[in-house]
Please model this.
Amino acid sequence: MTLAKTAILAAIGAVALTLGACAESRMHLSDDFGAAVKQDKLAQIADPDAKYTGNPAAGSNGPRMADAVDRYVNGKVIKPVTSRTASIPTGGGGGGGGGSQ
Model:
């Protein structure tokens, strides 16, 4: 076989392998493949026509929020109340059964 024939056969083989990779097979996928992702996406999309009943949230009080912005701009922000955690006494170990009998 000549060098030209070998090159042509190699090119044909490369094209055949490349086209074989384009074949699509769904034999290993179930019919509901991707359903969980679709359901998760739908759960995270807000309803553009949502109707809310009752009192609005506390942060949606316009005059109160305007006062807060004014205090921020003028440097008179109300400091939040500090909270404390419970204190747990620490000390030397008093328990354990490490001794001999």
